[in-house]
Amino acid sequence: SCRAPCVNGGACVGPDQCECPRNATGPTCATPVCDPPCENGATCAAGNTCHCEEGTSGTRCEKRKCEYQPHQEPYTRGFRRLVSRRFQTKCDPWGWKTCVHTQPEYQTVYKTFYRTVYKCATPSTVTTDPRH
Q1: Could you tell me the pTM of the whole model?
Q2: If you compute the radius of gyration of the chain from its CA atoms, what whole number of angstroms results?
Q3: List the disulfide bonds (predicted).
């Protein structure tokens, strides 16, 4: 006898033991199992059906409603660079002569790079050229 009833076609086969059909699992057969499994993060529901996430469709949620297209995304990196700073100074005892000296110093330089990322282009954002 089973205190909690077996569901989804499960049969009570011993004290609190349910024997589940191949489309269910768990102590009372309450967790549905989809065969073949659901795709793209979909949730399996009773009756071997899949509840699709937004942006997917199909019996197993295998179809994506968008087309992934490459985009160049900018990102900035900073790094320190050693440079020589030039400066002028008076270099004789009477202050008549001017000399040029260099002094090393660090400068922070920022540079923008680009990386390729793939973004979902839904049918409303996919542009088509009417001339083609």
Answers
A1: 0.44
A2: 34
A3: 34-44, 52-61
